[in-house]
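input
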Amino acid sequence: MLNANDFKKLMQHWAEVMVANRDYLIELDSHVGDSDLGLTMGDGFTAASRAIADSDETDIGKLAYAAGKAMSTAVPSTMGTLMASGLMSAGKALRGKTELDSRGVADLFQAFFDGVQNRGKAQVGDKTFLDGLYGAVESLKADAAAGVSMIEAAKRAAEAAHRGFLGTKGMIAQFGRAAGRGEQSRDLLDPGAAVADLLMKGYAEFMSGKAE
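output
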């Protein structure tokens, strides 16, 4: 089970992951964007984490929503807004929850996915963040239904997200600056999907560390 304190620690770990991978994201983004993705994600998740770090709130939904609001203010860029929308969507879906089991975690990431999709209007296959997260969400839902442990489910979800990220090479971008490159975008990995990959890797790391 994950409680509110766990969620705050997860947000902190996500912030650390994004900061540690700043240069990696900048490099990926330099081929299709304006090279600011690493800074945006590092600053955005750090702001989200700091906004709830000292909160006594036990409602995970309220924490997620507050984290998203803080991110939207800190990094009002396209990707910052999408990630903030994901967190706020998760916040609405989890309102009233003080603990999350496997099903609850699947609901969290499904709501995050839905929030990003509703704001950005992309579909799976459009070479975006969604392509990195989709397989992970489906994996979490299947494992929750099958009674797989949360730690193992997190590991499998991270593997699915990584496959999704790698799978963006071969897709033609439909959104952002990469879309303007048309057929040339096919040979590039999508930096947004890389963020999804890092999110799920960070979640798996957090769950493994929580068990130690």
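quick obs: The first helix runs from residue 4 to 20.
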